Amino acid sequence: MLRPLLQIAEQDEAFSHLASEVRAPSAAVEARISPSLRPFLLATLLDSADALAGRAALIVAPDDVGARDLARGLEAYLHPRRVRLYPSRGTGYASQIAPPPHLVGLRIGALDALTAFSGEGEAP
To answer: Looking at residue 54, what is its pLDDT?
Structure first.
């Protein structure tokens, strides 16, 4: 749906610099990004041949709400590429309560997508 917009960021010089830093395997990259722009910038990095295109990615958010919002934003920009969500358990480990089955399914799907990616085809 919004994938054509990613080309706008790829033409920017600052993005090109960030993409080359992200592509380098040795160093961590720190970037301060407005929350409203995070899905757009991350989707551009995941789609750009100069950055992470064709590679599986694991993106960590501070909480479930932030993770769900980010996943929805990434889906809008990266469609038809699949975006998987790995939610928290929903219960504490010591609570003796099993997590809800739908959360277990989402977690297994996300782990399966990361472990099944062979480097060929569409990355998860």
So the answer is: 78
Q: Which residues in the chain show pLDDT less than 50?
A: none
Q: Cβ(53)–Cβ(46) under 8 Å?
A: yes
pTM for the predicted model, two decimal places: 0.82
Tens digits of residue pLDDT in 52-80 = 887 888 899 999 999 999 999 999 999 99
SS (H, E, C) the chain: CCHHHHHHHHCCHHHHHHHHHHHCCCCCCCCCCCCCCHHHHHHHHHHCCCCCCCCCCCCCCCCHHHHHHHHHHHHHHHCCCCCCCCCCCCCCCCCCCCCCHHHHHHHHHHHHHHHHCCCCCCCC
Q: Which amino acid is at 3?
A: R
Q: Which two tokens stand for residue 121?
A: 């085809």
CB contact at 8 A, 47 and 9: no
